[in-house]
Specification:
mainly alpha, Serine Threonine Protein Phosphatase 5, Tetratricopeptide repeat, 2 domains, two-stranded antiparallel ribbon, 49% helix, elongated, repeat, Ankyrin_rpt, ANK repeat
């Protein structure tokens, strides 16, 4: 049906109201209709059209975990590092939703894992805060900096310490995350773990600091171990 309509001159980029203004491609990307998407792309549907503050077909596909759709959009020139709202990228959308397959596809096509939001939050920080271990591991395999800081001075390690995810803390430390960095509140990862009573993380970080010889530089520490 879609192919027939397009053959008879239907506007492939026509938009209509469905609460917000959307195109056929956007609806198909949200639902994951791969065959329809391919037909629309063959008729040169605009892969970089935007709605609602910058939402693109790619972002809709990423948010709804449609890996094959993401692949197809990227092959047709979709902007892999586009941003929506406060600087959120398609890669960040995958991180927030724990969509590992989407994330791997984006990274394969060159998504920038070091991009940050307007407040300086990176994909790794988001994954660490959300407790998405497989996402964290996939990002670290890219060899990107583990110690980027947001505007408030928080790091991925601090985020993991805040929520109490010991597995992510261990992975970050194994990838040389610094436990000695200080945020704008003057707190370290260890202090954050202490204030939230995550005792297994306190043990892990304290032992790590002793091992690397940095125990003496940690402020606000009770020395719990």
């Amino acid at each position: 049906m879609v192919n027939t309509l397009l053959e008879h001159g239907a506007n492939v980029n026509y938009t209509f109201e469905e609460g917000i203004t959307v195109s056929a491609l956007m609806l198909a990307c949200r639902k994951g209709y791969v065959h329809i998407i391919q037909v629309l792309l063959n008729y040169e549907a605009n892969v970089n059209s935007t709605i609602n503050g910058g939402v693109t077909p790619l972002i809709l596909a990423c948010a709804n975990n449609h890996v094959e759709v993401v692949e197809s959009l990227l092959e047709h020139g979709s902007n892999i590092n586009s941003t929506v709202n406060e600087g959120v990228t398609p890669l960040m959308i995958a991180c927030l939703n724990n969509h590992v397959g989407v994330l791997e596809t984006l990274l394969k096509h060159g998504a920038d894992a070091d991009m940050s939001t307007k407040t300086g939050i990176t994909s790794l920080m988001m994954a660490s805060r959300c407790g998405h271990l497989d996402i964290v591991k996939a990002l670290l395999k890219q060899g990107k900096s583990v110690d980027f800081t947001a505007k408030d001075g928080w790091t991925a390690l601090m985020q993991a310490c805040f929520v109490g995810n010991i597995e992510i803390v261990e992975v970050l430390l194994a990838n040389k995350a610094s436990a000695s960095m200080i945020n704008i509140e003057g707190r370290t990862a260890l202090a954050i773990a202490e204030s939230n009573k995550h005792y297994n993380i306190i043990h892990t970080i304290a032992n790590h600091l002793i091992k690397v010889g940095n125990m003496g530089v940690e402020p606000n520490s009770t020395g719990y171990c």
